[in-house]
Structures are given as structure tokens and as C-alpha cells.
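Appendix B. Raw example, untouched.
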Amino acid sequence: MAMPHIIIISPALAKANNGNWQTAHRWGSFLRARYKVTLAAQWDGMPYDGMIALHARRSAPSIAAFAAAFPALPLIVVLTGTDLYRDIRSDAAAQRSLQLATKLIVLQAEGLCELSPDLSSKADVIYQSATTLKSIKKQVRNFDVTMIGHLREEKDPITFMRAAAQIKSAHVRLVHIGDALDPALGTQADKTQNKHPNYRWLGNLPHAVTRQRLKRSQLMAITSKMEGGANVIIEAITSGVPVLASDIPGNRGMLGTDYAGYFPMGDSAKLAALIDRTVSDMAFNARLQMQCDARKTLFAPQREKAALLKLVDNCIHPNGHGNCATPDNETCHDRFPLPSPLPEGEGGRVSLREFHVKRGHP
């Protein structure tokens, strides 16, 4: 029997060097254990046994064309941060992608809260992963706080830049890695590092180099306005580097609702104060480290690989449930770790419909 052939659609390929590409590349390597895999920016019109498409809006033409040509075949759509927290609210193409999908994947538990019950019933949570790197905790001259993300509005790099003028601790360096996708933000980064020596913008670096710089950092900051499930959080945690994060759903779904390292989105003063506290308050620093360490098991490569293969296997070789079906009696608690505190209900177990009604969905 021929090995089933899966196409993974990712609008961002290797040259983009962003989170979507890292996801597509990693999932391709996982799936090649059982499937032939093609990675492409758009569907080439050729027959495949199934499609995995990252980004409901940007991959919408490929999703629509594949669904029209092969309506009975598995079509798995992975929802990104801009999908969940912007596009599916107003973009007709993104909304159509959700309807056409056989299965939906969100990359952190809070993502399900953005979907209506009829859509969440065909959605799974798959946490992404990264290999563990041993952190370097030796005494260093500088306390490096690293931000990793291309300079664009959704990542809110201005908040990180503004924090440079508000940090009181000596020897703190704010190090930003990422390409200037918005030229105006690149100009602002240049101005910031010229005015504030404690801010350095390194531009775009290869992924392996970026990970090495991250593991040598004392702290990682993520200031984003929206995230689907940030790879950089996983890479920090699996490198033993604690995180300061904007208090948005996508970050809460990764770090937990009770995490101590949140600051209000866009609040550079609060970010600077948290950095200062992490430098001076060893108990607080240790608390962040402990909370991050407690999340490591969620981001293990073997866990992500097993979850992905189980989902795709069920879609390609359904066992009497129909393509990619989810059993009717499955609950939220069965499918992903619920954010704390647990929703009310017997033992914290609630149906998908009840879970979303409690969060304001119809």
C-alpha cells in the first residue's frame, strides 16, 4: 500500500524565519514517520490524501480550492493568532475556511474560547514544542532581556523599546531579534538604540543562532497584541529562561492564568518595573522560573508528535467515526488542560457547549 501523501500549506516558508514556518517544518518532520509530506505556500492542484493549512485567512484560496476539488478528504486548518483574535471576527475568507475545515487546531487552550460551540466541537488543542537546551546561569556582566519577533504591529515592539528609557537597574540590556517587516518600526528601533545604549536591535538572525542567544539570556519578553501560541515562549521555557508576557489570551493559554510575569498589553512602564523586580527580587525571579518549569511537560516534542500523529491518523484512517470525528461524549477536560481556576461543574468536567456558554458564547 502506498504511503498517504499530506500537503502542509504555510504562507510563510523558510525565508520568512517566523513561527508559522517553524510549525510547518517541525510538523512535516513529525508526519514523515508515517506519511509522505509536501510543504508549500499554496496548493499546487495535485491530488493529496489530506491537507493541513496554517492560517485561515492567508491560506484561504488553497483551503477553498482543495475543499471544492476533494470535499470528502481531510482538511485540517491551524488557527494562528491573527486568525483567532482578528480575522475570524470580520474576514469572510477566514470565516469560510473555518466552515470548510474537517478539523481545526488551536495551539493553546484559550484559543477554543474564541470559537462558537459548533466550531469548537471539531477543534483540538495541540501545544507546540521545542528541544530542550541547557541554560547558562553563570555570572555575567549584563542582565539580558531578549525579545524575539519581527518588527510588526501585532508584536508591539514599541512597548519593548519604550521600556529601555524606564528601566532603573544597571547592566540590563534589552536585546531585540527580528526583521523590520514594518520599515517605520525599523527606523524607530535604530533611533532607540542610538538614544538608549541599553537597547540593542540585532535584526534577523538564523533560528539556531537565535536559540543560542536566548538560552544565554536571563529573561525573555513577549509584548504581543495577539498570539496564537507563541513558539518563542516554548523556546524560552525549554531553555530554562523565565518569561515576561503581555496579558493577552494567547499568552495566558501558554503560561497559565495564575502566572506572575504578566504586564498589561502596551504598558512599557509595567514591563520595565517587572524587569527591575526580576533583577532585584530573587524570590520573584525564582517564582517565575518555577512556574515556567512547571509548564515544560506541555511543550515536549514527543507529546506534540503523538498528538499530531493521532489526529492525522484518525483523519486519514477513521475508525467508524467519519473523517476526523470527535466522540460526542468527549469533554473539554478530556481534550486539554483547562485554565485555572477550573470551570464550575462536577469535578471541573464540563461539556464543550457549557464551557463556551460560561464564556459568553451563544
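End of appendix B.
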